[in-house]
Amino acid sequence: MNINQRLAEELKIELWQGEAAVKLIDEGNTIPFISRYRKEVTGSLNDEVLRKLSERLTYLRNLEDKKKQVLASIEEQGKLTDELWEKIQAAETLVVVEDLYRPYRPKRRTRATIAKEKGLEPLANTILLQMTKKTLEEEASAYIDPEKEVNTWQEALQGAGDILAETISDDANYRIRIRSLTQKEGKIVTEAKDEKAASVYEMYYQYEEPVAKMAGYRVLAINRGEKEKILSVKLIAPEEQIVRYMEKQLIIRPDGDAARVMEEVILDSYRRLIGPAIEREIRNELTEKAEDGAITVFGKNLEQLLMQPPIAGQTVLGWDPAFRTGCKLAVVDPTGKVLDTTVVYPTAPTNEKKIRAAKDTVEAMIKKYGISLISVGNGTASRESEQVIVDMLKEIPEAKVQYVITNEAGASVYSASKLATDEFPNFDVGQRSATSIARRVQDPLAELVKIDPKSIGVGQYQHDMNQKKLGEALTGVVEDSVNKVGVDLNTASASLLEYISGVSKAIAKNIVIYREENGRFTSRKDLLKVAKLGPKAFEQCAGFMRITGGSNPLDATSVHPESYEAASRLLEKLGYSAEDIAGGKRAGLSRQIRDYKKTADELEIGEITLRDIVKELEKPARDPRDEMPKPILRTDVLDIKDLKEGMILKGTVRNVIDFGAFVDIGVHQDGLVHISQMSEKFIKHPLEAVSVGDVVEVRVLGVDEKKNRISLSMKGLNK
Known about the structure:
The strands form four sheets. Strands 6-5-4-7-8 form a five-stranded mixed β-sheet, sandwiched between helices. A five-stranded mixed β-barrel has the order 11-12-13-15-14. A three-stranded antiparallel β-sheet has the order 2-1-3. It starts with a helix and ends in a 6-residue tail after the last strand. The chain is built from 29 helices and 15 strands. By secondary structure, the protein is an alpha/beta fold. Among the domains are: 3-104, Orthogonal Bundle (Arc Repressor Mutant, subunit A), CATH 1.10.10.650; 316-442, Nucleotidyltransferase, domain 5 (2-Layer Sandwich); 505-626, DNA polymerase, domain 1 (Orthogonal Bundle); 640-713, CATH 2.40.50.140.
């Protein structure tokens, strides 16, 4: 198999692009670096395509390695034919390779191997050929041997049947055909173990669906219900069709004695050996496909969440709501420094005196620190806290304070982590959580990287899936997001730096240590003085590190040091100095270049690189998050009781799943926009219509106060 050719076909890219990308990956370059600084080499392949390419490259190389192992094993046994060699070489999946290897794989002791030890293989061959003129009783009687524990002709026949059942089961052609039939015609059937028990799986208490039509989220829901011992799940295959197909292949003389035995053998082979194995394979395949889909959606949601625009330049009050233990507050200045923390008790169990005391405390903080925004966590007691805040803000309109409901998923995980303990050794978990809730609106990316992506709460069934695969995918998303934005080398935490291309956890810590010991970085070149950060790591990371007010103005941009000479010559050619970058005197730079190809040739760089340099010089260190929708800042509160059918409201998309999206409309409970209510035109997936963080208009379709469910529609509104 030509792996590069295969990658090009699958990803719909040119062969030379695939070859170039593979070479760069093999040389140890990271995906963000290749995507941003090797566009000339790859023809501008983006990070999404490059990650898919990297994943498929690993799979296809593993497939080739498996083929080599299998071929070597069969050859060692002296059983490798030209036909088998060709079939294995042509196999496109690991499943097919395993099917072809099955007859030759060293086996544990089975009913068939025991029968072979008793000398019954010739009898099995006689039955298989169906050419005997004797009765089967006569044929089998010849194999009676008490020493070998074959005491009757029936035992001999049974043993021969076991050998045949395994032989049939090991045949790759049968397995491939049966698998295909089961995938096309099979059904997943689920039942409740206790129909009277209330659970979230009630729709699956008596449920069936064709294998071919199973939606990923239903597969994951059924799997969880089975795991929790609420559901029993079966795959019902088209057994009659399968058995007829096998009889057609194996029964030569339908009227002979041997045909009756073969019918029993075929049924035994299918029910005992082939069927259960195929059921496991198909269910594993369904699960894997469902997980891959869920991971993709999780990744898209996570990216949108990480790329939320920061609310810069504001002193924020982080409010971690709670009932009995009180609401934890933390005042954080525009740089992320904690100025003050306290606890107030405005929520149950409470009284007017405590509520008044809480309002007075917060009002005093607003005046003392110039707080302009309150960030309220959306957990327990959020709704009650929100009401207190709204009442209080009405008392002090002159302060012009707004509030925002912040998704606090993972804040408790962070506040109890070693990282949080190191960052705030003198704070309790509540103070750390309130600080995190405040910082999440100031710089979502910098704060969210401190939390395990799986705990951020924008996926579905994340705890049920392959954790290694999920972890790798989400880490990739975080890496891409951090590198898209870049980091300030003089303020970034170690937890943010470790996601930068080429920077390991150890190097990230060493960067912070170097900064603490030597003061601010004044040049990107200083990175080479950091312990364990060698030339290769520097090449990978330098372009993503920003230094404001350093010795070289280009260090504040995403122009890579390898292109500094070209950038300086370009500026000189156009009558600018490097200092003009910092002074903001480079607007309209792109219009001054008449012929990009000619200019690129003069500067001895590629045209794509030139365009990237120009773009960056015009708007240095532009933040891609600026283009994302801003969070909704509120001054009033709604209750679920206030909602009426037909009401049109603005809301923020909190989570996108396979069958819809959850939207925060300002009440404590997010509403669901089902996929059928998202667009006038047909869409295959909600991500075609919305992303996490989008601000959308919705119409209230229905409210179920008892179940705390809100149904929403976007139809006809977001044009």
